[in-house]
């Protein structure tokens, strides 16, 4: 017994493997933004063309959210995430050989297919590996690694560019992605009962019941219930995602063109806001879990963090437009991103709280908002820069959307879950003697001939 308590928990090792996936996948996602100014100069691209390259990732990414989550619910996250990681690894590797705008757009599109279903699939993986009281931390720490990946991308990519060119950066990152796939295949299982290292004590800690995973695969997906419970979370995720895409795509260009930073300064000051996001992601999940443990009020624990995060992000984004000093502007952006990322682990925890065994599909529904924002935000941002010659208008639009997300977050209710809906319908069915409700509903209806016309009419 003592031996079991001293060793690292199996779920924590799996969490570490997933953290590595978030780290690598985000480097693969944002490396194009760091290399963007160099690619733009080499290929002679306009701001609109570069915006199109940036946004090409987001179209399949948005579509694959629900598709990838649903596939994970039905076929298990191990098989689905293995295939997806192979796709984005090959796409990243091949980008190093791109010779035209069309090829760049096509490979970014393929990358979007691979990464599109990855996070909903990872969320589904946590359903049977993380206890309720650790889900906020799990989502927070994994997304912290995602932001850490975004933070190390500028110095990493620019260092490789300095020695070998931007193409070498994509080749190196493609190999790293494929190596992670092998690690994942060797260690991850869909449920604790399939893992050789798991102990009965840890299975009890997780709260997993034998056969839960197999039963979930055969359950019909309640699409209408999921949409009814998740649409508001999707709206908040869209508002969050709009500004995040600005950081992931246009930040290096903004600091170079609007604030006048050189290449060496660019590596530091692009990483600074993203490092602030690393801290925000971790704190958001930890604070939410602690609030839940202290109060027992899940809705308060989730929604309060959403409101504080979006409100703080808005408060620090507004002064960016009027800041005269470039370093001050970076500090405001860093503070705004810190608060923005506080909301991220909570957003990803909500599909687990609300949808349970359908968390893959629900996570896909939620992150469709982020994907749609990615389809629109980089293009609109580039167009507004091109038309106005300034970054002020697109930043103002982002601030307005943060305000919308803050208001929408106030109405999210974690007590209204899909499982509660199903249990209520089951109780109603049993109270009617096990017969379908429409049978009893029809007992108060009889056919009568209307007193003025010949056709049969229904009368109560």
UniProtKB/TrEMBL annotation:
> Which segments constitute the Major facilitator superfamily (MFS) profile domain?
14-417
InterPro entries in the record: MFS (IPR011701), MFS_dom (IPR020846), MFS_Na/Anion_cotransporter (IPR050382), MFS_trans_sf (IPR036259), Sugar_P_transporter (IPR000849)
Q: What is its main location?
A: membrane
SUPFAM superfamilies noted in UniProt: MFS general substrate transporter
Q: Which GO terms describe its molecular function?
A: transmembrane transporter activity
Question: Quick check: keyword Membrane in the entry?
Answer: yes
Q: Which residue windows are coiled coil?
A: none
Q: Does the keyword DNA damage apply?
A: no
One GO CC term on file: plasma membrane
Name of the protein described by the UniProt record:
Major facilitator transporter
């Amino acid at each position: 017994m003592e031996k079991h308590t001293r060793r690292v928990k199996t779920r924590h090792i799996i969490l570490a493997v997933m953290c590595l996936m978030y780290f690598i996948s985000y480097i693969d996602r944002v490396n194009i933004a760091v290399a963007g100014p160099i690619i733009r100069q080499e290929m002679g691209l306009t701001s609109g063309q570069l915006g199109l390259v940036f946004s090409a990732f987001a179209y399949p990414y948005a579509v694959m959210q629900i598709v990838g989550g649903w596939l994970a619910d039905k076929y298990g996250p191990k098989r689905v995430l293995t295939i997806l990681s192979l796709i984005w690894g090959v796409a990243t590797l091949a980008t190093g050989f791109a010779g035209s705008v069309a090829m760049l757009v096509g490979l970014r599109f393929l990358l979007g297919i691979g990464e599109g279903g990855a996070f909903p699939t990872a969320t589904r993986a946590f359903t049977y590996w993380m206890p309720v009281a650790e889900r906020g931390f799990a989502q927070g720490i994994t997304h912290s690694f995602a932001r850490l990946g975004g933070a190390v991308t500028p110095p990493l990519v620019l260092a490789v560019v300095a020695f070998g060119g931007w193409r070498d950066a994509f080749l190196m990152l493609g190999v790293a992605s494929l190596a992670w796939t092998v690690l994942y295949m060797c260690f991850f299982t869909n449920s604790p009962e399939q893992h050789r290292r798991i102990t009965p004590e840890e299975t009890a800690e997780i709260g997993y019941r034998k056969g839960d995973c197999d039963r979930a695969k055969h359950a019909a997906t309640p699409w209408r219930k999921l949409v009814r419970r998740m649409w508001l979370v999707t709206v908040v995720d869209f508002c969050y995602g709009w500004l995040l895409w600005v950081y992931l795509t246009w930040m290096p260009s903004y600091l170079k063109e609007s604030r006048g930073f050189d290449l060496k300064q660019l590596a530091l000051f692009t990483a600074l806001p993203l490092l602030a996001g690393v801290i925000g992601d971790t704190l958001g999940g930890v604070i939410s879990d602690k609030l839940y443990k202290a109060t027992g009020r899940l809705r308060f624990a989730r929604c309060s963090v959403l409101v504080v995060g979006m409100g703080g992000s808005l408060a620090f984004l507004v002064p960016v437009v009027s800041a005269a000093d470039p370093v001050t502007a970076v500090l405001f952006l860093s503070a705004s991103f810190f608060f923005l990322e506080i909301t991220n682990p909570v957003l990803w925890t909500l599909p687990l709280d609300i949808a349970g065994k359908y968390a893959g599909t629900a996570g896909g529904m939620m992150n469709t908002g982020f994907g749609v924002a990615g389809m629109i935000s980089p293009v609109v941002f580039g167009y507004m820069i091109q038309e106005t010659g300034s970054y002020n208008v697109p930043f103002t639009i982002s601030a307005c959307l943060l305000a919308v997300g803050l208001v929408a977050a106030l109405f999210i209710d974690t007590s209204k879950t899909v499982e509660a809906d199903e249990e209520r319908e089951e109780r109603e069915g049993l109270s009617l003697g096990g017969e379908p409700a429409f049978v009893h509903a029809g007992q108060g209806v009889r056919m009568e001939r209307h007193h003025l016309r010949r056709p049969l009419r229904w009368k109560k």
